[in-house]
Specification:
This protein has 226 residues and is an alpha/beta fold. The chain has helices spanning 19-32, 40-47, 51-59, 66-81, 93-102, 115-124, 148-157, 171-180, 210-223, and strands spanning 6-9, 16-17, 88-89, 107-110, 133-135, 164-168, 183-187, 205-207. The chain is built from nine helices and eight strands. Helix 1 crosses helix 2 (40-47).
Length: 226
């Protein structure tokens, strides 16, 4: 099997459990308005669809509504003040990153999350000096599922798409990776709506948790050397 020499990750729902911060902020906003709080499991399926979808679900408003716009602006302001107050790496991710680094395999992040949120998060979590490439919407003309951001990350890592893996928890991640000519790994533990099924994304590999992701990477690494 062809060796891999770099790994790129999506951020929210793949490396980072950011729903913890999203839920904290939305719960505060609901409480201030005398509204019933939204449980975290109820919010998680909306995370991958973006902040507007989360606000729409939490406040039971149409996505394209003037009140949704106002609440979205408030949410983004609050989130920008402390984008990693409660967020953390998913259990097992730190072990995976350390495993890659021990083998001199560079890793990076390609996300549709704006840089003014993403970069402070990496700094807070102590990943800013470890992440070899961070590609956000500001660096490209077209975001995922367009492959532009993934191809830019490969150039920064000095690796070809064919020797790079892309790991993500959304159909657009897998599509972007495929269009870039990469092998892809779909993460079933991310923010996946109940009606969606990662098995239908036609990724190269599918994992259900970070332990399975770690085993897969180790297996691919060993297979490429036999």
């Amino acid at each position: 099997m062809k060796a891999f020499h770099a790994v790129l990750f999506d951020l929210d729902g793949t490396l980072l459990d950011s729903a913890l911060d999203f839920h904290h902020i939305i719960a505060q906003m609901l409480q201030q308005r005398g509204r019933t709080s939204l449980d975290l499991p109820e919010l998680r399926p909306h995370v991958s669809q973006g902040a507007r979808a989360m606000i729409s679900a939490a406040f039971q408003l149409p996505a394209e509504d003037a009140e949704t716009d106002r609440l979205l602006e408030e949410f983004l302001t609050l989130y920008g003040q402390q984008p990693a107050q409660h967020s953390r790496l998913f259990d097992g991710i730190e072990t995976i990153l350390s495993w890659l680094e021990a083998r001199a395999i560079p890793w990076g992040i390609v996300t549709n999350k704006p840089e003014h949120f993403s970069r402070p998060i990496l700094t807070t979590l102590g990943l800013d000096q470890r992440c070899a490439s961070l590609i956000c919407p500001e660096q490209v003309t077209h975001t995922k599922p367009d492959p532009e951001a993934l191809l830019l990350a490969c150039r920064e890592l000095r690796r070809t798409p064919a020797e790079t893996l892309y790991v993500g928890d959304h159909r657009r991640d897998i599509e972007a990776g495929q269009r870039a000519g990469m092998r892809t790994i779909a993460c079933g533990y991310g923010y996946i709506p109940a009606q969606d099924d990662p098995a239908r994304w036609h990724s190269t590999h599918l994992v259900r948790d970070t332990q399975e992701l770690a085993r897969l990477l180790e297996s691919l690494y060993l297979e490429s050397r036999t």
